[in-house]
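A quick aside before the break. I want you to see a complete sequence-to-structure record at least once, exactly as it would be stored in a machine-readable document. Don't worry about memorizing anything.
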Amino acid sequence: MKLTPMIIVTYDTKHLVYKDKVRFFYALKGRGGQPGIIKECGIVQLAKTVLLVRPKQEKKVKEFLKEWKCKSKMIHCLMRPNEINASKRS
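That is the input. The structure line, written in tokens, reads:
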């Protein structure tokens, strides 16, 4: 069975004040017809602070989180394509 490389990214927004958290989530998810980084990069949000990212988007996600001064961890893994597709439906 073919496995696809993916990255599980966790991040922390505890350092942001409320108004900046709102702005962060708008940049993440989009607002007013403007896509956020999730849509732009084809990212799957697994939980509130957990993202599933393709390796080709790793640099863009790192830069995004660095811009917001978010601490993050990246775990490189291999997934079956059907697991990735199931994550998108959740």
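Two observations worth writing down. The chain has one domain: 4-89. The radius of gyration is 13 Å. We'll return to this after the break.
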